[in-house]
Design goal:
This protein has 255 residues and is α+β, with helices and mostly antiparallel strands. The protein has four helices and 13 strands. Strands 1-4-5-6-7-3-2-8-9-13-12-11-10 form a 13-stranded antiparallel beta sheet, with helices on both faces.
């Protein structure tokens, strides 16, 4: 998969996991060619909008350390997104990859890009129900700067023969992983479930029973929990046309 498209798919999926609620179905997704602005060099991590209230965190995305800023602003979501789209246009100038913009019908959306040096950026913006907008800004360094092997949430091993397409993991082991697993959605879900069961997580019994009874391709959802309560979910979707099934594993932080 092309790097920019892979980054888009993974980052939008991760945004959904953390509850930003971006619309994927029916959204307006555009690939935009960079303007010739003659700018050189990459800046540091993405900065929040002026006057915003924000916090800084860290995650690992595909094994690379990521700088994450999230917060709120009184500015309108569309205007904030426009600012980051303009920044993306400047930062990809002179590279082969366009930046990608996805507009949320409810206000805001996502802008994702890879800079000339290979650093990855994502600005995820959503209109706040009360006022202004919420945002999450993700920045990774260029390849090779602090890079390490990609890993799964909770340091799980992917099922045998599976391909880890994208992962984002926090320091506490919570996070999100997207995998391609050969076989049906049901068999892929079973294989992923075996991995999480090995570390003490269990799936909802009714969902497991439905997994055994339903022979259709469809989509499989397995809510997960441990002794303390809910911990996440496994989602498996048939690939269609002989393509591998797609499995997402989401692990939430302990409450």
């Amino acid at each position: 998969m092309h790097l920019a498209a892979r980054w888009l798919a993974g980052a939008v999926s991760a945004a959904a996991f953390v509850g930003f609620g971006l619309w994927v179905t029916g959204a307006d997704v555009r690939a935009l060619s960079p303007a010739r602005l003659g700018l050189q060099g990459d800046p540091g991590p993405l900065l929040p909008p002026e006057g915003a209230r924000w916090t800084v965190g860290a995650r690992a995305i595909d094994g690379a350390p990521a700088h994450v800023v999230e917060g709120t602003t009184d500015r309108e979501a569309g205007a904030v997104l426009d600012d980051y789209a303009a920044l993306a246009e400047r930062e990809v100038e002179g590279s082969r990859a366009p930046y990608l913009r996805q507009d949320d019908p409810g206000g805001g959306g996502a802008v994702l890009w890879v800079t000339r040096s290979g650093a990855r950026r994502a600005a995820l913006v959503q209109a706040d129900a009360l006022r202004g907008a919420r945002f999450r800004l993700i920045s990774t360094p260029p390849p090779g700067e602090g890079e390490r092997a990609a890993r799964m949430p909770l340091d799980l091993e992917p099922p045998a023969g599976a391909r880890l397409v994208f992962s984002t993991v926090a320091a506490d082991g919570s996070g999100f992983a997207l995998l391609e697993v050969h076989g049906s959605a049901r068999s892929a879900a079973r294989r992923a479930l075996e991995r999480v069961q090995a570390i003490g997580l269990v799936a909802d019994p009714e969902a497991v029973a439905a997994l055994e009874e339903d022979a259709g391709p469809g989509q499989v959802a397995l809510p997960l929990r441990d002794a303390a309560g809910p911990r996440g979910v496994i989602l498996a979707t048939a690939g269609g046309g002989g393509a591998p099934a797609r499995v997402t594993l989401s692990i939430q932080p302990r409450s």
